[in-house]
Predict the structure.
Amino acid sequence: MSENLKEVWERCLHIIRDNVSPQSYQTWFEPIRPVKLEKQVLTIQVPSQFFYEWLEEHYITLLKHTVKKELGPEGRLEYSIIMENSYHAQKPYTIKVPTSEQKAVRNPQVSMPLDLTSEHPIKNPFVIPGLKKVHIESNLNPNYAFDNFIEGDCNRLARSAGYAVAQNPGGTSFNPLLIYGSTGLGKTHLAHAIGIEIKKNFPNKTVLYVPAEKFTTQFVDSIKNNTSSDFVNFYQLIDVLILDDVHILGGKEKTQDVFFHIFNHLHQSGKQIILTSDKPPVDLQGMEQRLLSRFKWGLSADLQVPELETRIAILQKKLYNDGIELPEEVVEYLAYSITTNVRELEGALISLIAQSSLNRKEITLDLARKMIDKFVKNNAREISIEYIQKMVCDYFDMPMDLMKSKSRKREVVQARQIAMYFAKVFTKSSLATIGAHCGGKDHATVLHACKTVNNLMETDKQFRAYVDDLEKKISLH
Ligand code: ADP
Ligand code: MG
């Protein structure tokens, strides 16, 4: 390694270290190896495609600034990615990916000659120059294995169908297998789990996980580059195709056409297709009928919001994997409070752990309560207008009737305005609805009330104290 390369990278690391947490630094920057420095282009080697994407998603601005700072305005970064599962090769495959400046970044277009068809090399939209043998990166995230996917009533059908498919890909009547459910319920996780399990059972099968979004861009690029037949040929080589979030193909007719084509080819050759979608096939908007009818050939299985026991089990699994211990009451409290989806549940757990380590506070039920209240308020739990009115009346020791009356007495008006204000903050109700609940006022009155409360909070300390206090009480709901 040239001295210069080493030094430049050391200096970059120095800057990076000052800008990220020690944990992130250790996870995402220590594993990077500088491999080349040529004409202000610094090439760094990263351990996997996933790693590269993570860097691009989370640290691209920092990396860009750092490189420019060290190498001047012309400075650029290129990645060299070690391919995972590279059982064909002794030494790591590397690919070159120019960093974000160029548009090519998400879908680097580099040709990959495949040995299968001797005459005409097919371009792999996933990159890899100079590869001699067929090697298609699966893009599977090992953390999303079946072991980490907690079973419950909410996912039993989808999970067991997925498991069955993984024992006999292409050989069950679950083809395609379509997993649907709203966001954060585990579609992506389950899709990966199936892929991982297939790879485990049939190491020689070519499994490919691809988000529908990426599939679309690859296709669009292939048209631009006049390589769309290569694109199709590439996908037709896959044994198990996992297309995530297929609903985003809605309205994209050309992409649907090409997918229809690929689908038919794979299906006819007994290959397995796994799809995920945020809606059941019948509700997919802008999807061609012939494609929808294909989706119905196999099995559609849904994911529901997990029930309490499953939510607890998911949290416990996550804690166990991360080697963290939490009092049982805290875990239960989290599981009780966050009912929307698993992603939110995990999000709450992560914030809680982060808060406790930042403030060096033990994770107690009390801390969890405080945190969750904030968390939940920003999310889905709907508080009713009546509840807010009751809280406000209790607080000012005022009969509900009085608040809902036409009284113009100052304290009554103020209580009424505060109730309207909180109704606006805590509920999704329209101004008109709020007005109707608060003694038949119109939307302009509610709007005025909100403004008045905001103004008073700025100018009147005592008033502000009331409102803050009440806000706490209401959000503790
Ligand atoms: P979706 O693709 O449906 O939006 P994801 O698969 O991304 O949802 O899941 C969101 C998060 O919840 C992921 O971190 C995933 O690991 C986790 N998760 C979802 N379902 C389960 C489950 N049954 N067991 C364990 N973790 C789960
Ligand atoms: Mg997903």
